Amino acid sequence: xxxxxxxxxxxxxxxxxxxxxxxxxxxxxxxxxxxxxxxxxxxxxxxxxxxxxxxxxxxxxxxxxxxxxxxxxxxxxxxxxxxxxxxxxxxxxxxxxxxxxxxxxxxxxxxxxxxxxxxxxxxxxxxxxxxxxxxxxxxxxxx
Length: 143
Fold this sequence. Notes:
InterPro entries: Membrane_assoc_protease, NA-bd_OB-fold, NfeD-like_C. By secondary structure, the protein is an alpha+beta fold. The chain has 2 domains: 74 residues, no CATH class; 59 residues, CATH 2.40.50.140. 48% of the residues lie in helices and 24% in strands. It has 3 helices and 5 strands; from the N terminus they run H-H-H-E-E-E-E-E. A 5-stranded mixed β-barrel has the order 1-2-3-5-4. The longest helix is centred in the middle third of the chain and has 28 residues. The chain is rod-shaped and about 85 Å long.
């Protein structure tokens, strides 16, 4: 097997690793494909088989060791932009019908919501501004 054959085989290996990467979305396969590409470059530069394999292993392990923890941290972080019900928590609303521990109505984000007070002993009168603490189903909990 000559040098041209070696780098071609490394590129075939890189493509072979890239196809399941696209199908399974496993980033580790992409890192191995990049390692195989580095092995192809080493073969193209005339390195021996041992050096090619060492370059493949070193690049693959380095990428997995560096990129994987960064990706895991990014995946674990909550989105910066709150959406849906989470976006309504902490907003202010206006009381439309008296709100107490048993119920009432508020205008929240341009919509009419059923509401009840967080403290069952508290009541809020029409026109008062309240803060939304939580959303339980279709009911806003206010204070």
